[in-house]
Design brief:
six-stranded antiparallel β-sheet, six-stranded mixed β-sheet, about 0% helix
Length: about 150
């Protein structure tokens, strides 16, 4: 198992993430209602096509490049970057609180890609209502993963 820390980046191929692979978010929500989402962004960092927003109410995007399974405290996105259209340059994985609470209340949580794990908890945040946990993005012709772990209010 390779542990990533906030800000660490690596190539998906080096992590064994080729073809269809899982991105699994496990959250210790301490009773909070937290929505997990994946946003497919264009070259300008914008969600230019709402069909590439995958969440509890839209569990797949066109072409099946991103699909979502939700089970209790664990949400698993199945990703195949080869199926993404050329207009999608980045996948951003987020967690947002629906209702009361702040990310400071979050218990020990993880984002895992095969044998790579990024751990985070409420101690990493203040009063944020939402966080970008990680992202998969294209750079120099290769797909990469970045552990973000940064939050915002809103």
């Amino acid at each position: 198992m390779t542990d990533f820390s906030r800000g660490q980046k690596g190539k998906l191929a080096d992590m064994g993430c080729t073809g269809m692979f899982p991105v699994t978010l496990t959250l210790d929500a301490h009773g909070m209602d937290i929505d997990i989402s994946c946003f497919g962004l264009d070259a300008g960092g914008q969600l230019s096509d709402e069909r590439f927003m995958v969440f509890y109410n839209q569990k797949s995007c066109p072409g099946g490049a991103v699909t979502l399974e939700i089970g209790g405290s664990t949400s698993t996105f199945h990703i195949d970057v080869a199926r993404l259209p050329e207009t999608i340059h980045k996948l951003v994985f987020t967690a947002s609180i629906n209702g009361e609470g702040t990310m400071r209340q979050l218990g020990a949580s993880t984002l895992r890609l095969r044998s790579t794990m990024f751990s985070f908890s409420g101690a990493d945040f203040q009063d944020e209502k939402a966080v970008i946990v990680g992202e998969i993005y294209q750079r120099d012709g290769a797909w990469r993963f970045g552990a973000v772990g940064q939050g915002f209010n809103g």
